Amino acid sequence: MKPRAALLMILPALVLFAVTFIAPLLLVGRLSFYQSDYVHTAYVGFQNYIDAFRDTYFLKSFVNSSVMTIMLAPLITIVAYTVASAISDYSEKVQAAARFLFYVPGLTSGLIMGILWLWILDRSGLVNNFIVSFGGEPVPWLYDLWPARFSIVLVSTFSGMGGYIILYAVTMHAIPEELRDAAKVDGASGRQYKKLIQRPLMMPTILLALLLSIVGTMQLWESIYMLTAEGGPEGGTASPVYEIFLTAFKFGKAGYAAAKGIILMLVLIAILLIKNRVEGWLRK
Amino acid sequence: MAEKVGRFFKAAILGIFMVVMLLPIYLMVENSFTPASVFLKVPPDLFPYEFTLANYQRVFSNQYLGRWALNSLIVIGAIVTIGIVTNCAAGYVFAFSNQKIYRYLFWAMLSPMFVSGYVLIISRFLVIRWLHISGMLAVILMPLFWPTGIYLSRNYFHSIPMSLIESARMDGASEFAILMKVVLPVSKPLVGACMAFLAMAAMGDYIWAHLNLTRPASKTYLVGLLQSTLETYQIRSVGYNLAVGVMLFIPYLIVFSLSSRYFITGLTTGAMKE
Question: How many Cβ atoms from other residues are within 10 Å of residue B58's Cβ?
Answer without folding.
Answer: 15
